[in-house]
């Protein structure tokens, strides 16, 4: 079996992505591997209008300078990683990268550049019609990635009893809990 030496962890700085980061930290510490933490800055959020009153005149607005966007993203990434510094001390080498552009394509590009053995991601759960019409970033990265992608998701709570609607339809008595 191939040994996992280089791990890539893309993060969107959400609480959901902390799960993937902690899992990757433990994998990298066990295998004495290299951990690369990637944050893809959102260049679309870096647009601002001259004034709210004139927003209808210039719908595209004016962009922030790229260095300002990357500086803000770097500060956000450092704030996100601050609670996990103790877990990262056990890893031989931790690398942080910031890039700008389309998220899934940038993750795949960095995985190729870093020669990653594994990409650890934490997908968001989409339900209903949103799941049908839009593929998530984890799905797109899985299809394009040059290496395996590990998806770390939170466990779903179990339902109390799957046949809860049957007694209502057939007028059966509800099951009672066992008494001792």
Task: List the SSEs and their pairings.
Layout: E1 6-11, H1 15-31, E2 34-41, E3 47-48, E4 62-63, H2 66-81, H3 85-88, E5 93-100, H4 103-114, E6 118-121, H5 129-133, H6 137-144, E7 149-151, H7 166-170
Mind telling me the C-alpha Rg? 22 Å
Low-confidence stretches: none
* Annotation field: number of helices: 7
Backbone shape: globular
DSSP helix fraction: 25-40%
The first-level CATH class is given as Alpha Beta
The total beta strand count reads 7
Question: What report would you give on this structure?
Answer:
The mean pLDDT is 78. The protein is globular, with a radius of gyration of 22 Å. The protein has helices spanning 15-31, 66-81, 85-88, 103-114, 129-133, 137-144, 166-170; strands at residues 6-11, 34-41, 47-48, 62-63, 93-100, 118-121, 149-151. Strands 5-2-1-6-7 form a 5-stranded parallel sheet, with helices on both faces. A two-stranded antiparallel ribbon has the order 3-4. α4 packs across α6. It has 7 helices and 7 strands, in the order βαβββααβαβααβα. The N and C termini lie far apart (51 Å). It is of the alpha/beta class and 180 residues long. It has a single domain (6-154), classed as Rossmann fold.
């Amino acid at each position: 079996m191939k040994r996992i030496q280089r791990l890539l962890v893309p993060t969107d700085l959400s609480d959901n992505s902390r799960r993937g980061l902690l899992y990757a930290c433990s994998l990298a510490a066990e295998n004495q591997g290299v951990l690369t933490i990637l944050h893809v800055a959102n260049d679309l959020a870096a647009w601002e209008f001259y004034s709210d009153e004139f927003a209808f005149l210039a719908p595209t607005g004016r962009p922030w300078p790229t260095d300002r966007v990357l500086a803000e993203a770097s500060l956000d990434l450092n704030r996100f990683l601050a609670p996990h510094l103790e877990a990262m001390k056990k890893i031989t080498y931790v690398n942080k990268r910031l890039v700008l552009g389309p998220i899934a394509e940038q993750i795949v590009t960095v995985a190729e550049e870093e020669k990653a053995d594994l990409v650890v991601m934490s997908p968001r759960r989409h339900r209903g019609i949103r799941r049908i019409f839009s593929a998530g970033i984890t799905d797109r990265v899985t299809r394009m990635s040059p290496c395996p992608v590990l998806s770390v998701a939170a466990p779903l709570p179990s339902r109390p009893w799957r046949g809860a609607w049957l007694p209502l339809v057939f007028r059966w008595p509800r099951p009672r809990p066992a008494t001792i």
